[in-house]
Write a structure and sequence with these properties.
The complex is a heterodimer of chains A (360) and B (309). Chain A is an all-alpha fold and 360 residues long. Chain A has a two-stranded antiparallel ribbon with strand order 1-2. The two termini of chain A are 19 Å apart. Chain B has 13 helices and 2 strands, in the order ααααβαβαααααααα. Chain B has one domain: ABC transporter involved in vitamin B12 uptake, BtuC (Orthogonal Bundle). In chain B, helix 6 packs antiparallel against helix 11, helix 10 crosses helix 11 and helix 11 runs antiparallel to helix 12. Chain B is 70% helix and 2% strand. With 309 residues, chain B is mainly alpha-helical. Classes of the chains: A mainly alpha (360), B mainly alpha (309).
């Protein structure tokens, strides 16, 4: 298909940060505009609906707290993903890496017998290591054997899901769970403290904010950050400059997998205090975080904002369900639409698109 | 239940469950052969399942449901084609958003359709005479529906087109070396659009099979990850329709066995197998030039722009 006459697409040499910002915001607004049709179809005024969502997600202390606690896993995973995406490693496996982190944390909490003060630190370390291991396997397979990272990371999500299902139905099923498929509750010392009366497990939040900053410094100020970018943008130049693709890929997946693992620790030790079904623990944080990282244009600091934005959408799902009586699934429509408009909008970033309606 | 009956019912159910896997895989093989990776199979399938069920329910004609399921699946896939071919956007992200959109849309629109019984599903048939063949008769010719057979017939047809016709050569060359294909006067974009649409139609039909034939009802998220097994299967089949058939029934058997062997083997282990196998296969074929010989499209998920390599 040739481009029609009225449409002209030229490659842009450079793009300013401001242009990127304007295009990104327009993409989100366009997606929300299309999503408004759904509200209208269900007989709900879109303005009323969006108002309710904002009020529900931000308008009260408790609503805001729920939004923040949802931003925590998105922040941790999103920051890690910006690093992986910079090296053009397509980690679609954050969901599985999160679950592996949760499994490791639960294992430590329930069976390690460590003294109380060591319990939480050990859980975070184990969760990081477990998530990172799950992420490093596809990394090694890609660099050493040339195996497609998208496919392996995706497949490993499902292996993690079934591993977790097996654990909670089988060997780890709690004697006190009264026949339900989950483990016993963690001992109190394995609970991450929360802000009073909320589910905001603040130490994980602080960790996430800190890691966003550290990663920003890593990518902008260090040699490793530079190498990650070169490997991603120009593998041939990287080889010529003697940058090890192996080491760089391992590093980015250590970070991306490890951070997702930390998010898993936060969910089980901060929210649920036991290991339960994979869908109850994550409901797709690993996938949503892909949009979060994408929207942040691979900038770790920007993830602080974008993760919060998508947390609002997830909280909005509760509002949609409770106040408007519409299906929670609507948030998947939102996410899908936003993602489409975002990747669609990239054509405006990479190219200059102009329209002319004069006949030629 | 005697062991012979046990084997017969297991294989018969394998055939029934493997059919939607095979349909989806055949479609994805064509899509990927043209160089487009569509991770939206799950989304297209569920949209097919939803639209097929509602059409069959309203019109009373289940075959019309299958037709509409295919059309909707195909239409849905064009979103991915537009993003990845015309806009040259990232195919991984585009496919993922298609899945999110499909699961979300069908969940939203399907509210109120849950639990409604379909009075006229595509029913099982018994082939007179052939069903009397010992052992094979009850597996192949009893209790299966027409779609199971049509799907099997599709395998040699799609295999023949891909390997023995000019159309097939065109598709494969677009997937392996779009620049060369372009220089030979092939319209790369059009081929990719078409192949993506074929994948969408077959995924939609697969969804329709689930909602109007296999378990005639609509439930939110009823494809339950089948679309991802299709992605695994496409690799497992080395992008070859004939291998796809073996793989689909093999993975189908694993799924059926995960229930039937429950007392002895944990079902989670068997359910995780397809995904582990896909990775294992990739490791095995990754040695040297084997991968390209095994059929992996060289330009898979790489957008094509004339003059840019």
């Amino acid at each position: 298909m040739r481009a029609p006459n009225w449409l002209k697409i030229e490659r842009r040499p450079t793009v300013s940060g401001r242009t990127v910002f304007i295009i990104s915001v327009s993409a989100i607004l366009a997606a929300l505009l299309v999503a408004a049709i759904f509200f209208a179809v269900f007989g709900v005024s879109p303005i009323h609906a969006y108002g309710l969502i904002l009020k529900g997600a931000l308008g009260s202390r408790l609503g805001l707290a729920e939004t923040v606690r949802r931003a925590i896993p998105l922040l941790l995973i999103g920051v890690g993903l910006t690093i992986a995406f910079r090296a053009l490693f397509w980690n679609i496996g954050a969901e599985g890496q999160l679950l592996m982190g949760a499994i490791a944390a639960a294992g430590v909490a329930l069976f390690s017998g460590l003294p109380d003060p060591l319990l939480l630190p050990a859980m975070f370390i184990a969760g990081f290591a477990s998530g990172a291991t799950w992420g490093l396997i596809p990394a090694v397979l890609k660099v050493k054997l040339g195996i497609n990272d998208v496919i392996t990371t995706l497949m490993m999500n499902y292996i993690a899901i079934y591993l977790m299902e097996w654990l909670i139905h089988g060997p780890w099923k709690g004697p006190t769970a009264r026949g339900f498929a989950y483990t016993d509750q963690f001992p109190r010392a394995a609970w991450i403290p929360t802000l009073y009366g909320t589910r905001v497990h603040w130490p994980t939040l602080v960790l996430g904010l800190l890691l966003a900053l550290v990663m920003y410094i890593l990518v902008t100020r260090t040699k490793s950050g530079f190498e990650i970018r070169v490997v991603g943008e120009n593998p041939d130049a990287a080889r010529f400059a003697g940058i090890s693709q192996f080491k760089t890929t391992l590093l980015v997946m250590l970070i991306a997998g490890g951070f997702a693992g930390l998010a898993g620790v936060g969910e089980v030790a901060g929210i649920h205090h036991k290991l339960l079904g994979p869908l109850n623990i994550s409901m797709g944080y690993g996938y949503t975080a892909i949009i979060v990282a994408w929207l942040a244009r691979r900038n770790p600091l920007a993830v602080i904002i974008t993760s919060f934005l998508f947390a609002i959408i997830i909280s909005g799902g509760d509002v949609i369900k409770v106040s408007l009586g519409l299906p929670f699934q609507l948030i998947n429509v939102f996410n899908g639409l936003i993602l489409f408009f975002l990747i669609g909008s990239e054509v405006f970033i990479r190219y200059k698109v102009s329209f002319s309606f004069r006949r030629q | 239940m005697g062991w012979e009956t046990w084997i017969i019912t297991t294989l018969s159910r394998t055939l029934a469950y493997g059919t939607p896997l095979l349909l989806g895989t055949l479609g994805e093989i064509y899509t990927e052969r043209s160089g487009v990776l569509n991770l939206g199979v799950e989304g297209m399938m569920i949209m097919g399942a939803y639209s097929a069920f509602t059409t069959a329910y309203i019109t009373g004609n289940p075959w019309l449901g299958i037709l509409v399921g295919g059309i909707i699946g195909g239409a849905f896939s064009l979103i991915h084609a537009f993003a990845s071919v015309t806009l040259k956007a990232n195919q991984v992200v585009s496919g993922l958003s298609l899945t999110m959109l499909g699961l979300g849309l069908s969940g939203v629109l399907g509210r109120g359709w849950e639990g409604k019984p379909l009075s006229n599903p595509i029913s099982a048939i018994t082939v007179p005479g052939l069903s009397k063949i010992p052992f094979l008769g009850p597996i192949l010719f009893e209790g299966q529906n027409l779609l199971v057979y049509l799907t099997i017939l599709l395998v040699p047809l799609l295999w023949y087109i891909l390997y023995r016709t000019r159309i097939g050569i065109t598709i494969r060359s677009v997937g392996d070396s779009p620049a060369t294909a372009d220089s030979l006067g092939i319209n790369v974009d059009r081929v990719r659009y078409l192949c993506t649409a074929i994948g969408g139609v077959l995924a939609g039909v697969a969804g329709g099979y689930l909602s109007v034939a296999y378990r005639p009802a609509w439930t939110e998220g009823m494809t339950a990850g089948m679309g991802w097994i299709v992605i695994a299967l496409t690799i497992f089949a080395f992008w070859n329709p004939a291998h796809g058939m073996l793989g689909a029934y093999f993975f189908g058997a694993l799924y059926i066995l995960s229930f039937r062997l429950q007392p002895w083997i944990s079902p989670e282990f068997l359910k995780a197998m397809p995904y582990a196998f896909a990775i294992l296969v990739l490791i095995i074929v990754s040695r040297g030039t084997l991968q390209s010989r095994m059929g992996a499209p060289a330009a898979l998920s790489v957008p094509y722009t004339r003059g840019e390599e």
